[in-house]
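Example 4.3 (complexes with small molecules)
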Amino acid sequence: MKKKFYITTPIYYVNDKPHIGHAYTTIAADALARFHKLQGEEVFFLTGTDEHGLKIQKSAEEAGEDPQKFVDEISAEFRDLWEKLGIQYNHFIRTTNPSHKKAVQKVLRTLYEKKAIYKGEYEGLYCVACEQFRQENELVDGRCPDHDIVLEKVKEECYLLKMADIQSELVKRIENREPASLAGGFRIEPERYKREVLSFLKNEKLKDISISRKNVKWGIPLPFDKEHTTYVWADAFLNYLTGLEWDGDANFFQSPTFPLPRWNRGNSSKSDFSNLSFWPPDIQLIGKDILRVHATIWPIMLMHLGIPLPKMLYVHGHILSRGRKMSKTLGNAIFIDEMLEKFGVDGTRYLLMSAGTFGEDVDMTMERMVEKYNADLANGLGNLVSRVVKLVGNLQLAISNSDLIQNSKFKIQNYLTDLEINQALEYIWGIIREDDKFIEENKPWELAKKDEKKFQEVMKKLVSDLRLIADLLVPFMPNTSEKIKKALEEKKVEILFPRIKHYTETRN
Ligand code: MSP
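Answer. The structure with 5'-O-[(L-methionyl)-sulphamoyl]adenosine bound is encoded below.
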């Protein structure tokens, strides 16, 4: 049986158009999914849109549109963008899907019956942009630290989810790393984010959280009290399960050998559970701003329900521009459609994935990207491909497997297993730079005239390296990889990455 690999992105809010932050996570997930497929694994890659809640309700009102129509339009923009970026997801989940809504209601009823949810009252400072209550001690000058907006004081009757009584169990799961899938461990990577979560969980007793809203219409009604709608995060988290066609029945996961789910006991056939056999996720990619909710509310909901926890949360940093969060008002925003227009699909994928260490914040400006595009793609990869293809001419070469090939594949495998995406790319560009040097040193155009044997040797290495580069690039730049292979076969080449002369700011 093939090893299964399940990867998720957060589901994106549809209050506004998709932007490069969204593209960043989704391209990373796509590259990882493609890589695991190449390793022979059976992969399920889930992404989608988060469509309920006050923020979206307000945006729809401002646009003067019916909320369903509003979310339909923006969700479609996400799918269009993923298509342009070559994202090969297995399923695109929308939280306004009737089947998702039904499953959420079933879960809430179960939690209510188990007394994990009870009726009460909540008072706090609500940030609409986060769709979260924030604690007094998190604020900066009374404002949300992530969104810089003044928070609304909310006091209302609501239903609360018990958090604190599972807290110590959660700490154990986070600390217990190996073997994650068997012990129900819950890894948080990179390490410093795990430390951050643990120190918070050890120092503060979690408050029970409100999982319903009385004054938000745009949400899933609570099945046991129609005056309330479901808190958008509780609704959203369940996408990771409903995206695998789960119907909300928690009994599905119960087994006498818990935490081993039913299908791992070896006595059921695949058709019993379809995509749910991918559960639990191997990697859940999230940005650092949504770590805390993913490391508390989400696993606690699962633990109340008796569902195995995800194996790993992987936290990535934010894309900043000139040291600041991108925003239209600051005029430092980078637009994904502008990137696509300038750099093409693979250029955009490359520039985003190579922008910096995946777990850390990365700073990008359009000027620097143009420079990097010219250096690494036009002059680097593109130029190497065109030189080699031209030099090889009609030469017939028998290429054999080299140590470099085995070694490089192993290296990339190691990097990607650790989600060191940019290091993987740097490694490939190391090969490109060495080949450039190799060409300069050996001057094959001169050898062609005076030393046929040496010329053939030199060309053998170069062609073999180019094939290797094309193979290694598959997860990151699938179209370019194809083009390189085709160019080597047909012995002719188009310009892969036309040089960009200069960059002029076109928008503010
Ligand atoms: N809907 C919630 C997630 C629910 S998952 C059950 C949400 N949506 S979001 O659209 O606001 O953000 C989705 C993801 O995009 C987050 O992981 C966030 O970190 C990421 N990014 C948003 N802006 C970003 C950058 N500028 N840079 C990198 N990623 C950023 O939160």
